[in-house]
Design brief:
The complex is a heterodimer of chains A (215) and B (114).
Chain A lengths: L1 E7 L2 H16 L3 E7 L5 H10 L6 E7 L4 H7 L5 E5 L8 H7 L10 E5 L16 E7 L6 H4 L1 H6 L2 E5 L11 H11 L4 E4 L8 H14 L1
Parallel strand pairs in A: 2-5, 2-6, 3-4, 3-5, 6-7, 7-8
Helix pairs in contact in A: 1-4
Chain B lengths: L2 H18 L5 E9 L6 H11 L9 E7 L1 E5 L5 E4 L15 E5 L3 E8 L1
Parallel strand pairs in B: 1-2
Antiparallel strand pairs in B: 1-6, 3-4, 3-5
Helix pairs in contact in B: 1-2
Classes of the chains: A alpha/beta (215), B alpha+beta (114).
Chain lengths: 215, 114
């Protein structure tokens, strides 16, 4: 006999994401799902953000396929950090986050970064309970990325265009990146930054403060 | 890219629903998968077949209806079907500001049980 199911395959993930969200709200914690391709500079941006005096109490969840290098880099800056190894999975899901929340002092934090696995496709599909998604694109990745990977640009609230100091050495059209990203997502906030020179980082942390303290 | 975790979700959901409806065997499962969902139907069937052997879905066939990507242009209001999964422009005005109307589905519709 036929049985109607009519269920979203990702419904189980979304249920756990809502539960995570409830825990974050109870702790008055603002949560950012930080996404990019591999090597765009997510961990460097977090290190810089921790170094600049934002006054925010920041915690980090590091997601990688393997290894704990990123968590060790964050730990040196004195921030509470938990490493998740996905063991091959190309993204973090709500349940992976749920299982490590007990290891973080949620009540003592203002802002939690969830650094997703380096990948421009899958992380945008799985909610983890975040308030907003922020993505990083290093300009060395090329100006064709917004139209090739539209979902991540559409889902993000802010885009950090990193390694802007490399512009003189690359044949990359930064205006095209910005134009295409904005046409996919007219509300997208774009920051041109360089972790190397520090350019643009104070505009990013000012925005972060405004977002995190309003929550 | 993450077909295995999607297959695990499907197996969990249909097994639970089958047991709840008082049946012991799943014969087939019908899914609707959007072409912009990032899921390749063949890889999903392969993953499902690999993990179903110890479950009540061990003989189940996975049927997948692929849903095309359709969009509505924000600039010229043209409705269109996209042939590529990811590179999206309005075919009428070439604009890249659009809303995705379909193509991101990842749904289980129904199943045949006995």
């Amino acid at each position: 006999m036929k049985v109607k199911v009519v269920t979203k395959i990702l419904e189980a993930n979304e249920r756990i994401a809502r539960e995570n969200r409830r825990l974050f709200d109870n702790a008055a914690l603002f949560v950012i799902n930080l996404m990019s391709g591999p090597g765009a500079g997510k961990t460097s941006i977090l290190e810089k953000t921790l170094t600049l005096k934002t006054g925010l109490r920041i915690g980090v969840i590091e997601g990688d396929i393997a290894g704990s290098d990123d968590a060790e880099r964050i730990e040196k800056h004195g921030a509470p950090v938990v490493q998740i190894n996905t063991g091959g999975a190309c993204h973090l899901d709500a349940n992976m986050i749920h299982e490590v929340l007990q290891d973080l002092p949620l009540q003592d934090l203002d802002l939690l970064f969830i650094e997703n696995v380096g990948n421009l496709v899958c992380p945008a599909e799985f909610k983890v309970g975040e308030d907003i998604k922020v993505m990083v694109l290093s300009i060395a990745e090329g100006h064709d990325k917004p139209l090739k990977y539209p979902l991540m640009f559409q889902e993000s609230s802010a885009l950090l265009l990193n390694k802007i100091d490399l512009a003189p050495y690359l044949d990359v059209d930064i205006n095209k990146i910005k134009k295409d990203a904005l046409s996919l997502n007219p509300g997208l906030k774009i920051f041109e930054i360089s972790c190397k020179t520090g350019e643009g980082l104070s505009a990013w942390t000012d925005w972060l403060k405004e977002k995190a303290l309003r929550s | 890219m993450h077909e295995l975790s999607i297959a695990q979700n499907v197996l969990e959901i249909v097994s639970e629903q089958c047991t709840r409806s008082g049946h012991t065997k799943i014969d087939s499962v019908n899914l609707r998968i959007g072409r912009a969902s990032g899921i390749m139907p063949d890889a999903l069937i392969f993953a499902f077949d690999a993990i179903k052997s110890d479950s009540i879905a061990r003989d189940a066939v996975l049927n997948i209806e692929e849903i095309p990507v359709t969009g509505l242009c924000n600039d010229c209001s043209h409705s269109f079907i996209v042939q590529e999964e990811y590179i999206l422009n309005c075919p009428a005005c070439k604009g890249s500001s659009f809303q995705i109307r379909s193509g991101r589905e990842l749904d289980i519709i129904d199943m045949e049980v006995s």
